[in-house]
Structure formats: structure tokens, C-alpha cells
Amino acid sequence: MKGRHLLAGAIALLLCAAGLATVGGDEAPAPRQRAELTIVALGDSVTSGVACRCTAFPRLYGRLVAERTGVSVAVDNQGVSGMNSTGLLNQLRHYHSGISEAVQAANLVLITIGANDFSGHEDAVTRASCTPVVPGSCVAKELSRLPTNLHQILTRIHALRPGVHVVMTGYWNVFQDGQVARKLYTSDGIEASFALTRAANAAVAEVARTEGATYVDIFTPFEKPGLDVTTLLAPDGDHPNAAGHALIAQTLATADLPDLLAH
Prior knowledge:
The chain has helices at about 5-15, 45-50, 55-70, 85-95, 100-105, 120-125, 140-160, 180-185, 185-210, 220, 240-255, 260, and strands at about 35-45, 70-75, 110, 165-170, 215. By secondary structure, it is an alpha/beta fold. The protein is globular, with a radius of gyration of 19 Å.
């Protein structure tokens, strides 16, 4: 999903759509006025930055946008550890959660959600006693429910903030990975966790495609051949470390925003 378009163009169009950009009059062109772009990040512990003790990727992404465009960027990180897609949907439906108000103020919404939908089946999957992609498997219900929830999440977001652009990320692994996984899981269990991750990512990508959102692939940069994903993970093997968050932010910053750039 990496694009070659200039991020500045996308952000400028976002600002115009939000009524934040200004245009000079008949006199000599005035210096570009700084305007604020508000990015709201929704999701789970990856979004919130658990186990990292570092700056989480939404704020790093906001800094990259600000540096490259000269626009003042505000980042509202609403990530919650343990959040799943059902929980996020419920929060968006309740005005008093604070999430609805945050979305209403957003110019861009980042979403990383879905891994915790499968947390109750981690042992079965990583012991290879459950084959995720087989019909009727232990995670079949969750794999079916995830896209339904995501569609409703995006519908709710657009009801709260019509026209706002949404960027959705996948995962490198819905369970533990790297050296920690190699110690805890069998090789078949590791492959099963990857199979589930690919299936979950495919569901997120398809929802993004049908809803006009942008899907950003996180699996590929984290699982790049020759790279040990351990170097991108906190000691728990489950969450990004500082390098991992930096990589997610950089990947987001190079993502194509075709719907915005087409205007």
C-alpha cells in the first residue's frame, strides 16, 4: 500500500475539505497560514502504546505529517488496551464514551482493531489444534463477526463525521511473535497464528476497500524476509517497541490516499 504521491497534497486536500485551508487575495501571495489537522486514533493496545514506554505510532505519524507539510497537527490517541471490535463499536454508539466527540472533531481517523477478537482462542490456535482457515474452525464465528463489526464501525464514524477519511491497519501477528513465539509455540502453531493473522488482515482490507477507506499493510514490513520481527517487539513479544512504532508511523506516512488525491 505504499504510494508515491506527495503526502502534502493529501493533507492539503484534507484541510480544504475541513474548511481549514486559506487562500490569499489579489495582492502578492501571502505566506501559507498554519492550520490544524486533527488525527484521531482508535484501537487496542497497539494504538495506545502498551509495553513500549515510548511514543506510540499515532503521535509519531502526526509528527511526520507536521514535518513534511508544515501543518500544525493534533493527535488524539483513543486506543484502549484489550479493546476488540465489538467494544469499539459499542463505544462509538455511546456519546458519553468520549469517542464520539473525538471523531466529530477529526479530519483523519486511524483504526487498528481486531486482534483481541481472537484472544479466547490463542491456546487452541498456537497449539495447532485449531486450523483457522477451515470452515467451522474455533475462530470461524469471530472471523465472520469481524467484518460485520468493522462495517458498522465505519458507518458510525461517517455518521458522526461525514466525509472524514479513515485509515485502517492490519497486524503483523494477532498473537505473540518473534523469539517469544518461538519459545512458546510449535512451528505448526506459529504457522497457524500467521494463517489467522492473514485471514483477519484480509477481512480488514476488504472492509476498507468496500467502505472507501485506506488499508495499510503492517504485516509485510514487520515480517520482511531477513528481518527478525523480535527487533520490532517489546519483551512480551506481543506489542511493538519503539522501533516497531516508528516503523508503523513511517508505513502510514508513505501510504497512498487515492480517494483524497482524486479530488
